[in-house]
Amino acid sequence: MRAETLTSAASRISASAARFFKEKKMSIQVEHLTKIFGEQKAVNQVSFSIENGVVGFLGPNGAGKSTTMKMLSTYISPSAGKALVCGYDVARQSMEVRRNVGYLPESNPLYYDMYVREYLEFAAGVHQLGSRKKSRIDEMIVQTGLQKEIKKKIGALSKGYKQRVGLAQAMIHDPRVLILDEPTSGLDPNQIMDIRDLIINLGKDKTVLLSTHIMQEVQAMCSRVIIINNGTIVADDAIGNIQSAEKPATGLLVEFDRPVDETALRALKQVRQLKQVEQRWLLETTQPEALRKELMTWSLQNDIAIVSLQNSSQSLEEAFRDLTRGK
Fold first, then answer.
1. Which of 113, 184, 272, 303 is buried deepest, with most CB atoms within 10 A?
2. Segment 150-161, tens digit of pLDDT
3. 271 and 168 in one domain?
4. Please, are residues 141 and 164 in contact by the beta-carbon 8 Å criterion?
5. Count of domains in the chain?
6. Domain boundary among 197, 220, 243
7. How far apart are CA 253 and CA 284, in angstroms?
8. How distant, in Å, are the alpha carbons of 121, 135, 142, 274 from that of 211?
């Protein structure tokens, strides 16, 4: 009787949690999530929440990205902490989570002896799509650009097209949440543009958690990034905030019509630091507008023309390096 009461209470709590997160449009909620392998703590007390859109999940190799994604997709169980996906607990309601999640792992495991359409039919059958099966397969083939490859065996495809097949299976059941681990790996520049546009469009009405080492992809697709290092979250903010947080001084990137002596530039009052970047000079300052005026006056006095003058903020790649090196 006591066991039945506890089960009933747990069901009521789960249903209540699911309703709460649906009302709040909270697709992913992670609280103190931890994973331990032997003596190694791969993920340590990680907490974050995602409502919607495309969110970049970054970190160096071995930081805990893939482990976190595997826990969110129920491939492995947490050692401690809690994670809800669309209001369902990954540890206790794994089947409900799988109905709401599309997952593309970094390794992209596929059945190489299957033909492309045959594999997608298999994936659709796993998700029990019923009457929607054919229409979803056709839609995924078009969305991922597999039209010319459907009669080939997966093992005969290039790495880029294998990646497209993996994306198609992740999306075939029209999940609310997509977890993509290195989705553009192995694609050529044209294919990357196609998949990038697809992910951006998916992010309009779905939640996409995206892991990649290509910072240009993050800047093109994501408005927010979460950075993990040594199993812990070291940054979680809008890209612009992360870029500016680590670098209070603003840079001006200036190019002159002829070589300029470094000593002369160091003498400018508003310059804090400087370095030469090919034909241009990067001048760091805390007063960018004052430095602009000072540069204009200096260039006129020395009969030196300014070819270009623009703001230069810290790149996402620089911020990433600083945050993951403990600076």
1. 184
2. 999 999 999 889
3. no
4. no
5. 2
6. 243
7. 9
8. 27, 29, 24, 34
One domain for residues 11 and 24: yes
What per-residue confidence (pLDDT) applies to 286?
Answer: 80
Instruction: Give residue 295's domain range.
Output: 246-324
| Spatial distance between the Cα atoms of 137 and 127, rounded to a whole number of angstroms | 12
DSSP 218-287: HHHH-SEEEEEETTEEEEEEEHHHHHHHT--SEEEEEEESS---HHHHHTSTT--EEEEETTEEEEEES-
Query: From residue 306, how far is each of 3, 99, 261, 275, 289 by CA, in Å?
Result: 79, 59, 14, 17, 16
In this structure, how many other beta carbons lie within 10 angstroms of the beta carbon of residue 322?
A: 17
Could you tell me the pTM of the whole model? 0.73
Instruction: Please state whether beta strands 250-256 and 88-89 pair in parallel, antiparallel, or not at all (unpaired).
Output: unpaired
Sign of the torsion formed by the C-alpha atoms of 7, 11, 12 and 13: positive
Q: In degrees, to the nearest 5, what angle opens at C-alpha 176 toward C-alphas 56 and 195? A: 50
Report the distance separating Cα 194 and Cα 167, nearest Å: 12
Cα pseudo-dihedral 186, 188, 192, 198, rounded to 10: -90
Mark out the alpha helices in the chain (DSSP H runs): 2-23, 65-72, 94-100, 116-126, 133-143, 159-171, 189-202, 215-221, 239-245, 262-266, 288-301, 316-324
Q: Are strands 232-238 and 224-229 parallel, antiparallel or unpaired?
A: antiparallel
Q: Are residues 219 and 266 in the same domain?
A: no
Structure tokens at 186: 């192995």
